[in-house]
Specification:
This protein is mainly alpha-helical. It has one domain (17-300). It has helices at residues 17-20, 24-34, 37-56, 65-96, 98-104, 107-110, 113-125, 131-138, 145-164, 169-191, 199-229, 238-264, 266-286, 295-300. It is an enzyme of class 2 (transferase). Residues 301-314 have a biased composition (Polar residues). GO terms for molecular function: fatty acid elongase activity.
Length: 326
């Protein structure tokens, strides 16, 4: 039998054994003892991606279509499962206990083994997600600042926050799982040469912008609750709030700039028209007897959404993840 406080947990229709066996004290102890290793991981990451770019400079790009499909599909499935296992807890708490509890009480880890388990996996997943950038480097696609900055800051913040059981993180985790569910599913479809409507890409970036706005709002509420009720009632430190709001605000600025340059600026609109025109030409050439003539054109149009000016990058950087705590 589970040892959970039913009053603060939703009525899960099914609980897996690995969820029921989750013991949050053990994971917190491990993270408290090891979280600073994240700085070494980030240092290695920076060396690999920028060293990799230098290594690939005069070498042909790798296609990696098969591995990219598998990678994005796995991350999409993981995010979908995470969203289904964490969102019910947030909804339940909001309905029965209100905003204060959702921001200030870490029952999602301490009293809910299902949500606690998927919170632990979420935090750990930020390390392998760095692999997104490897595909960009090996496929010689544009590596913009937002992409790698977002990856390393989310990783560091996630691991640090877990040591404190930051109560407001339940919001960040649910939002990130939900956005990543859509984002990685889109990437997988593009890598598999399906062509979802282009407005889907715009919707995903809009969702990420919304995520940043909500993240800032949650931190403002957390700051108010902390000042009003104190640390004993609101389990979040002032340091964490300051770091989180700085992080989310910087993401908002960078994502807003990316959104404007990609979808609203004259250059972005022109590049999308060029990509659409070349795609139409490519389709026509594929239907012609001389299929070899289409190969150079196909190389110019990445199957996962790269525009010619690089403003919308590959299946790991067009929308940049996200957040998430993200």
């Amino acid at each position: 039998m589970m040892n959970m406080d039913i009053s603060v947990t939703p009525n899960y229709s099914y609980i897996f054994d690995f969820e029921n066996d989750f013991i949050h004290q053990r994971t917190r102890k491990w993270m408290v003892e090891n979280w600073t290793w994240v700085f070494y991981y980030c240092g290695i990451y920076m060396l690999v991606i920028f060293g990799g770019q230098h290594f690939m400079q005069n070498r042909p790009r790798f296609q990696l279509r098969g591995p990219l499909i598998i990678w994005n599909t796995m991350l999409a499935m993981f995010s979908i499962m995470g969203a289904f296992r964490t969102a019910p807890e947030l909804i339940h708490v909001l309905r029965h206990y209100g905003l204060f509890h959702s921001v200030c009480v870490p029952s999602y880890i301490e009293q809910d083994r299902v949500c606690g388990f998927w919170t632990w996996l979420f935090v750990l997943s930020k390390l392998p997600e760095l692999g997104d950038t490897i595909f960009i480097v090996l496929r010689k696609q544009p590596l913009i600042f937002l992409h790698w900055y977002h990856h390393i800051t989310v990783l560091i913040y996630s691991w640090f926050s877990y040591t404190e059981y930051t109560s407001s993180a339940r919001w960040f985790i649910v939002m990130n799982y939900c956005v990543h569910s859509v984002m990685y599913s889109y990437y997988a479809l593009k890598a598999a040469r399906f062509n979802p409507p282009r407005f889907i890409a715009m919707i995903i970036t809009s969702l990420q912008l919304t995520q940043m706005i909500v993240g800032c709002a949650i931190n403002v509420w957390a700051n108010g609750f902390l000042k009003t009720h104190g640390r004993q009632s609101c389990n979040i430190s002032q340091t964490n709030i300051n770091l989180s709001i700085a992080m989310y605000f910087s993401y908002f600025v960078l994502f807003a700039r990316f959104f404007y340059k990609t979808y609203l600026s004259p250059a972005g609109k022109k590049s999308r028209r060029m990509a659409a025109s070349l795609a139409a030409q490519n389709t026509a050439k594929l239907s012609s007897p001389s299929s070899d003539e289409s190969k150079p054109l196909m190389a110019d149009i990445s199957s996962n959404g790269t525009t010619l000016n690089g403003s919308a990058a590959n299946g790991a950087s067009a929308f940049l993840h996200k957040p998430k705590l993200q």
